[in-house]
């Protein structure tokens, strides 16, 4: 069965010290740094780093004195974020800010956040249905006129190392055994719109080399009504 095999592969990959170190050393994307550096703080203060990885975006938010939270599905990544933030405040304080959580079942109240930043996360959904659930959860925890800052891999380019899963439509498996849902930009934005997340400004597309191969990235900002 593919699900147990992929789950084991994902636990190994995301918990691998070498991969954690790579994510630790990766800089914050300059476009998110610019967004949060220039944001109107009377409108944007409480922010969630969704899929925080090794904590680079969370650390940036802490540096700009945002009231932030962070979560990641992998416990090793969540733990790495806690330790990375410990230099800013006590470990006990960071534990209250950082959670292990799934993007399809977030442990936050409705309308709690002014903004969510999701940097390379949504394509890690385990099915197209789960991608829709993740967008619904994101919309649920955002206040009215809240922001979603996102980037994700899409089907604009599907590398040869990605193997399609039979009878699963948009689901692929990487050479490392990781599941990845690749939908088109148009499909993603349509799914977002169905969950009250609408385009705010420019949507950018480009190819990028990452640790798992060459991927087609779409990024932008969405906003709730």
UniProtKB/TrEMBL annotation:
Domain Methyltransferase type as annotated: residue spans: 48-150
SUPFAM superfamilies documented for this protein: S-adenosyl-L-methionine-dependent methyltransferases (SSF53335)
GO molecular function, one term: S-adenosylmethionine-dependent methyltransferase activity
Lineage top rank: taxon: Bacteria
Entry-linked Gene3D superfamilies: Vaccinia Virus protein VP39
Entry protein name: Methyltransferase type 11 domain-containing protein
């Amino acid at each position: 069965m593919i699900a147990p095999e992929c789950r084991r592969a994902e636990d190994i990959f995301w918990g691998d010290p070498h991969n954690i170190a790579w994510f630790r050393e990766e800089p914050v994307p300059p476009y998110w740094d610019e967004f949060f550096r220039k944001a109107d703080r009377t409108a944007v203060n409480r922010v969630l780093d969704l899929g925080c990885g090794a904590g680079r975006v969370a650390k940036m938010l802490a540096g700009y004195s945002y009231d932030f939270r962070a979560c990641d599905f992998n416990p090793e990544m969540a733990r790495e974020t806690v330790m990375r933030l410990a230099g800013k405040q006590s470990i006990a304080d960071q534990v209250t800010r950082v959670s292990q959580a799934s993007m399809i079942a977030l442990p936050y109240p409705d309308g709690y956040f002014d903004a969510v930043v999701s940097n390379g996360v949504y394509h890690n959904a385990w099915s197209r249905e789960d991608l829709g659930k993740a967008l619904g959860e994101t919309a649920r925890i955002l206040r009215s006129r809240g922001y979603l800052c996102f980037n994700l891999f899409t089907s604009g380019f599907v590398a040869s190392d990605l193997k399609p899963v039979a009878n699963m439509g948009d689901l692929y498996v990487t050479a490392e055994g990781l599941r990845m849902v690749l939908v088109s930009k148009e499909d993603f934005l349509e799914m977002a719109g169905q969950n009250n997340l609408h385009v705010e400004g420019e949507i950018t597309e480009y190819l990028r080399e990452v640790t798992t191969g060459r991927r087609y990235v779409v990024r932008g900002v969405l906003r709730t009504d």
